[in-house]
Amino acid sequence: MRILFVINNVYTEGNGLSGSCRRTVKLLRDAGEDVRLLSARGGHGEAPDFPLPDGRIPVFQPIIRKQGYAFAKSDEAVIRQAVRWADVVHLEEPFGLQIRVCRIAEEEGRPLTATYHLHPENLFSSVHLQWSLWFNQMTLLVWKRQIFDRCRIVQCPTENVRKRLESAHCRSELRVISNGMLRDVRPAPASPVPREDGTFLIVSTGRYSVEKDQSTLLRAMRYTKYADRIRLVLAGQGPTEKRLRREAAKLLREGVLKKPVIFGFHSLPELLALYRQADLYVHCAKVEVEGMSCMEAVQTGLVPIIAEGKLTATAQFALHPDSLDPAGDAKALAQKIDFWLSDVERRQAEAARYPALIEDYSIDRSIAQLREMFRDALES
User: Fold this and answer.
1) Of 59, 256, 298, 338, which has the maximum CB count within 10 A?
2) Which tens digits make up the pLDDT trace of 205-224?
3) In this predicted model, what pLDDT tens digit does every residue of 193-210 receive, in sequence order?
4) Are residues 279 and 340 in the same domain?
C-alpha cells in the first residue's frame, strides 16, 4: 500500500507525537509498506517526501516552540501531488493542514484515516484554558466535524480516548490500537538496591508544561519522609521550565531537598539508562492520551506511580493500587513514594512484573493492527 502520513513537522524533538510518528513510519516501512511523509522540513537538513513551507502563528509562536510543536503552511500543489500518490491518507493531527488535506483527499477520492494523539486540553493548558469546559468541547467538536468524521477509521491509542470520541458521537469507526512499546528493550536485572549513601533516585519524564504537572511531584517532596535522601530527575524541556526550576531551588534553599533537582532533555538511550538506575518513576500528567514516556520506563522494569484522572489514560499501566494516586494530590503522591521506598524487596518484586507488559502493548502487534486498519480503509 502507498500510505501518506500527514503531520505539520515530523522532525521536532521533545514532542511525543512527532517521535511516535517517526517510529511508526519506520516500522511500517520495515514491514514492507510504501510510506511517505507530507510535512515541513527539519532544522538539520531533514526533508520529507513532500515538503511544505514552515508556518508561524503570530503571538503564540514562542509558546508553540517551547512546547516542542511546529506548524507548516498549506501548499495546494504539494498537497494534491501527495494525495494523488497515495492509496490511503493518514492524519496525525487535527489542525488546519489536516483540514485542507481532508478536502483535497475527498476531491481525489482517497480514503482517510487518523490517529487521535492529543486532547484539546493538551493545547490549551499553556494559556490556562485546560479546564474551560465550553472552550475544550467546542474545539473537540470542530476536530470531530472537520477531521475525524471524515475518516473511515480513527486509531484510538487507549480505551479512554475511544470513549471520549464515542461520547462526542464521532461517526467514523473507532479502533483501539496502542502506540506500542519499544522493541528489544532489556529490563534491568532487578530494581536497584539501596546505594551506599542511602539515596534514592526518582525520575519523571515529560514536556515541561502545565498539564504534565511536574509541580505536584515537587510539592510532594514537602510531605515524603525520604525527601532528604531523594535525588530527583525531571527529564524534559518546555515552557514551564523556569517556574519548575524556581520551585526546585526553593526546596533546596529551605532544606527540604539536600540534592539539587536535575533538569534537561535526554535522548531515548540516555533515558533508558537512567530508568535502569532509578528506584521509582513518577508520572503526574493530568492530561495524557497514552503516555509513551511511562511505557518506556515500566518496560525496563521500573516501578511507576501514575496520576489517575478523567483526562489521562496512563493509569492503565499500573499493576498495583499503590502505583496510582489522584492527579494533582501532592500528599497522596508522597504517601505512595513512602510506600515503595520503605521496602526494597517489595519494590524489587513489583518491578519484576512490568516487563511482561510488552506482551499486551507490543509494537509489533500495533504495527500489524495499523496495517490491517489501512487495508480495511482502502477496501471499505
Assistant:
1) 298
2) 999 999 999 999 999 999 99
3) 556 678 999 999 999 999
4) yes
